[in-house]
Amino acid sequence: MASIQIVRFADQDQFEFSHHTGEAIPGPGQVLVRVEAGSVNPIDPIVATGALAHAAPATASLPAVTGGDFVGTVVTLGPDVEGLRVGDRVFGQAGVLVGGSGSFSTFALAPAGFTAPLPEDISDEQAASLPLAGTSALQALEALNVAHGDSLLVVGGGGAVGSLAVQLAASRGATVVATASPEDAEYVRSLGASDVLDHHEATWEERVKDFDALLDASNVHQPRWRALLSTLKRGGRAIFLSSKPDAAEARAAGVSAQSQLTEPTRERLTAVATEAAAGRLAVRVGEVFDIEDGVEALTARVRGKVVVTL
After folding, report:
1. How far apart are CA 278 and CA 260, in angstroms?
2. Nearest 5°: phi and psi at 256?
3. Choosing a second label site near 304 at 20 to 30 A (CA), which of 40, 181, 188, 206?
């Protein structure tokens, strides 16, 4: 069995490709999946530094298989699993943070509640790239209650979550403005954004006002969250994926703001798969690596998702 493992907590040289024998036995509420592909998320290298070991003890035991997103086939069902069958093609999350065994492995244990059946017409590359990014975008739009006629500002529209949020919001009839690099501007417009702002511009927030909702989908802590809130109209709503805004300060300014911890539930995964199968949702795949080159995949810098195939 091939896998990419975290062998030490460090900022570099902490991953190793390995071969080992044996298959895990799924516990209650788990499924064992034969993984076909997975994708890299920003949280994966953070887990590998050990930064989350105190808050999430499940990440503290080494060696540990890295990765969370997966597409594959159900091999074995654990006790108390409903709605899935052996042989089902599925996708979802198997990261250690959500109670899985890590997805960059020939076989992975995944929480059944974070695993969903997958239509056959969605490719492995797309399916492997959608679980966390797709459910993050969907959960944010649910919390923001984005509907037809609303105006939405998406910060980080060129990234995986941001680009999916642009597509989902536009399909709901919202007017979407996004920030992105100049190189990604046309791409983001093609997804449904009516305007794209250069996020390198120091004071771009001063050029836009009166949005109903804001999604900060950037994957770095945003020290300018107060400036971002100034783009909202009174009563506006904001979700931050990486930053932690002061909710009381936001209320005093007449808006609401909260950070998001994504729950990639089967219901959300199914909704994402439905949109993707209908051709209304797609993620940009930047590069595909074989598992034997998976260590390189975890540090790759490309536009789009990085996929690892097994």
Report:
1. 27
2. -120, 145
3. 206
Placement of tokens 């490709």 in the chain:
17
Q: CB count, 10 Å around CB of 261?
A: 9
Rounded alpha-carbon distances, angstroms, from residue 210 to 27, 153, 231? 50, 10, 6
CATH number of 2-130+283-309: 3.90.180.10
Strand partners, 215: 154, 239
Buried b (16+ CB within 10 A) or exposed e, 199-236: beeeeebeeeeebbbbbbbbbeebeebeebbebbeeeb
**CA Rg value for the chain:** 19
Secondary structure (3-state) at 156? coil
- Which tokens is 28 given? 């209650």
Q: Alpha-carbon distance 276 to 191, whole Å? A: 13
Q: Does residue 176 contact residue 158 with C-beta atoms inside 8 Å?
A: no
In this structure, the number of other CB atoms found within 10 A of the CB of residue 55 comes to 9
Instruction: Determine the CATH number of domain 133-259.
Output: 3.40.50.720
Q: Tell me the per-residue pLDDT of 268-287, one tens digit each, with 9 for 90 and over.
A: 999 999 999 999 999 999 99
Per-residue pLDDT of 193-242, as tens digits, reads: 999 999 888 788 888 999 999 999 997 666 678 889 999 999 999 999 98
* Residue 202 structure tokens: 């120091």
Average pLDDT over the chain, rounded to whole? 91
Cis, peptide link before residue 63, omega less than 30° from 0: yes
Q: Is residue 32 very low, low, confident or very high in pLDDT (cuts 50, 70, 90)?
A: very high
Model pLDDT for residues 57-87, shown as the tens digit of each residue: 666 677 888 899 999 999 999 999 999 999 9
Q: What's the predicted TM-score (pTM) here?
A: 0.94
Helices in 151-265 by DSSP H: which ranges?
A: 160-171, 185-190, 225-229, 247-252
So where are the chain's domains? Answer: 2-130+283-309, 133-259
